[in-house]
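stage 2 :: seqdesign
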């Protein structure tokens, strides 16, 4: 279908998209069975629900409508959104009554206006091609919770209600979602212990080939208004299956590592959330009051020896200082993991094999100040949030001085950072159904910002 448009028309549309204004100053489990390639190919076929069948019957008229639909109408709508955000950024907007602690935002007014524009205008089309368990579903518990819950919540949104972000009409869409799950591909397509990513990349490449040949939208912008989402460590690698997916499309990734090709102006960093049972722990459902109990411990960490940073942390601090509770495994008979977090002022969040760590979100749930120990990690929602208002960053080289660094944080700043943690908590919580400003909508807002082509580096 991509060949329907002339080469010259496609080039003009691509140039127009790339030259959008970028100077807006927004401060905002048993082993899986083996599968033959034929079975994988079958999962790429479109689902034949009654709604899909009726749309297929109307395909010729839809084709005519697509050709009649002025593509610049969507761009005019985005231009109106940009203008409203500019006005808010210039001081003609007020969000102080909306947010409990405006200082945690780069620009509360601009963020609030942008979010309202998203609620008012943003439409996402979810491609129907493919079948479960590789497409349209994802794991909704354990370390890949964010990936599975986002896919599932978006799939459950009614596209025909006339309300909400999802649309059944791709001509009205501002963004197009590729609903495959990398975690599911690893489970069902990857051959264990081979370290061979080729089957996963082959599936992603085939999926892109299917949607780009059946629909005109991928080729219309060279994929720049399409997005994928992955929390598996192999998400960045899988995206290399197609050069347009890797270079042009928006990649929403937990593994937001700039040394591995993550580009903050194009891609989206999303938080890694580990819900072991799929549900929030009961004692984490509500934020702890700021002064509800003492925090006698300076800092806490417990975790395995993954990657290059954690071994240094345990080598220097495991069992060395009662103020810094650093463990590989918690001692038998000791308090549970979250109890340690709730009794600590700082929660250490060192990278493992990859840059992201679920401890960042766990610390926020526990009202504990996250201490980011990482290189090249782009923190989630940094377009909008001032991480320096609710976290501390420590370079890996400063691990030997960790206690000195944390003790040097004035008590007044500890109280300020703790209040900041409580203020941003709502942005990192998964709800069902999703709620305003929660992690589901914050991810979509990050995609919305890229679709607006706002210069996020200057937020």
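stage 2 :: out
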């Amino acid at each position: 279908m991509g060949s329907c448009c002339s080469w010259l028309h496609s080039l003009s549309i691509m140039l127009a998209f790339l030259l959008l204004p970028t100077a807006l100053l927004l401060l905002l489990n048993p082993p899986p069975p083996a599968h033959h390639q034929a079975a994988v190919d079958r999962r790429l076929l479109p689902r034949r629900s009654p709604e899909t069948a009726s749309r297929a019957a109307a395909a010729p008229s839809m084709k005519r409508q697509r050709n009649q639909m002025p593509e610049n109408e969507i761009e005019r709508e985005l231009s109106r959104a940009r203008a409203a955000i500019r006005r808010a950024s210039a001081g003609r907007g007020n969000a102080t009554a909306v947010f409990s602690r405006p200082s945690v935002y780069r620009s509360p007014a601009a963020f609030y206006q942008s979010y309202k524009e998203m609620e008012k205008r943003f439409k996402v089309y979810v491609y129907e091609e493919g079948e479960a368990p590789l497409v349209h579903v994802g794991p909704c518990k354990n370390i890949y919770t964010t990936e599975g819950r986002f896919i599932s919540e978006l799939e459950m949104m009614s596209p025909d209600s006339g309300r909400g972000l999802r649309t059944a009409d791709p001509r009205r869409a501002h963004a197009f979602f590729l609903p495959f799950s990398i975690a599911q591909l690893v489970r069902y397509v990857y051959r264990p212990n081979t370290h061979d990513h080729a089957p996963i990349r082959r599936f992603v490449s085939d999926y892109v080939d299917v949607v780009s040949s059946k629909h005109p939208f991928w080729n219309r912008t060279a994929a720049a208004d399409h997005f994928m989402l992955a929390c598996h460590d192999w998400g960045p690698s899988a995206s290399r299956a197609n050069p347009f997916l890797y270079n042009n499309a928006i990649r929403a990734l937990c593994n937001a590592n700039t040394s591995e090709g993550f580009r903050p102006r194009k891609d989206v960093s999303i938080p890694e959330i580990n819900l072991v049972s799929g549900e929030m722990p009961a004692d984490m459902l509500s934020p702890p009051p700021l002064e509800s109990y003492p925090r006698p411990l300076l800092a806490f960490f417990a975790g395995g020896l993954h990657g290059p940073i954690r071994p240094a942390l345990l080598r220097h601090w495991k069992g060395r200082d009662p103020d810094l509770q650093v463990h590989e495994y918690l001692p038998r008979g000791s308090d549970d993991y979250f109890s340690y977090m709730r009794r600590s002022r700082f929660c250490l969040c060192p990278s493992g094999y990859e840059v992201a760590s679920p401890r960042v979100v766990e610390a926020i749930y526990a009202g504990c100040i996250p201490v980011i120990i990482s290189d090249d990690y782009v923190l989630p929602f940094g377009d909008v949030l001032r991480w320096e208002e609710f976290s501390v960053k420590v370079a890996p080289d400063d691990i030997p001085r960790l206690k000195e660094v944390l003790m040097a944080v004035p008590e007044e700043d500890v109280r300020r950072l703790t209040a900041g943690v409580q203020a941003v908590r709502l942005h990192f919580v998964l709800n069902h159904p999703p709620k305003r400003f929660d992690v589901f909508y914050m991810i979509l807002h990050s995609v919305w910002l890229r679709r607006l082509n706002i210069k996020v580096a200057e937020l």
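stage 3 :: structure notes
- The first helix runs from residue 7 to 18.
- The longest strand covers residues 344-350.
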